[in-house]
Design goal:
Elements (H helix, E strand, L loop, with lengths): L4 E5 L5 E6 H9 L3 E5 L4 E3 L1 H6 L8 E3 L4 E3 L3 E4 L14 H7 L16 E5 L14 E5 H7 L4 H4 L14 H4 L15 H4 L6
Parallel strand pairs: 1-7
Antiparallel strand pairs: 1-2, 3-4, 3-7, 5-6, 8-9
């Protein structure tokens, strides 16, 4: 239970990442953060958090003297900046950025039939970067070959660019809690690529 994730919001209630329940409780105790009750959006210091009643079946931490609710969300008391993070360039993140669609024909084949294509082939001086790599289905990739899209008669549906960092990218889908949706939602955070 102590290693479960807790969403961290800055002082302006902007999601900046996650931490463990253990660290979140320590931060609430040290007054570096408030516990946020997702049901009514009230913030609590450690004493008021400890006085909240635990609902039947709700996960909690039991001590000799009290039962502590698991903080799903904390709000930092003094940090009001935004993290200056970048999305790591990786195959997985290219798939996520392009929404598992071929960027030439807009098809959505099975993942096994998608490849990462260099717009300007590496043999012609192209590099592996956000602006030069897109997803392509096998037929489009074969058609393009070792040429540029113009030389092969293909046209990109969207200009590739580096996506903005968002907490969604760093939080595995299976670990997200329903109470986080109002702060971290794929629909809100995933940036639509330019046409």
């Amino acid at each position: 239970m102590l290693n479960e994730p807790t969403l961290v919001l800055n002082k302006s209630w902007y999601p900046i990442g996650t931490t463990t329940v253990r660290t979140a409780l320590c931060m609430i105790f040290r007054e570096a953060a408030w516990g946020l009750d997702p049901s009514d959006h009230t913030t609590h210091d450690f004493d008021s958090w400890a006085s909240l009643s635990v609902l039947a079946g709700e996960p909690c931490i039991r001590t000799v003297r009290l039962e502590l609710r698991i903080p799903e969300i904390i709000v930092l008391t003094s940090y009001d900046r935004f993290p200056n993070r970048r999305v790591p360039f990786s195959r997985r993140n290219i798939y996520r950025r392009d929404r598992y669609r071929c960027q030439y024909c807009n098809a959505r084949p099975p993942v096994s039939e998608l490849t990462v294509d260099h717009i300007l082939p590496r043999s012609l001086g192209g590099h592996s970067s956000w602006a030069n790599c897109v997803l392509a289905c096998l037929p489009c990739n074969r058609r393009k070959g070792n040429r540029t899209p113009r030389e092969s008669g293909l046209r990109l549906r969207r200009s590739p660019r580096e996506p903005r960092w968002s907490p969604c990218l760093s939080i595995p889908i299976g670990k997200r809690k329903p109470s986080w949706e109002q702060f971290v939602s794929d629909h809100y955070w995933n940036v639509e690529l330019e046409a």
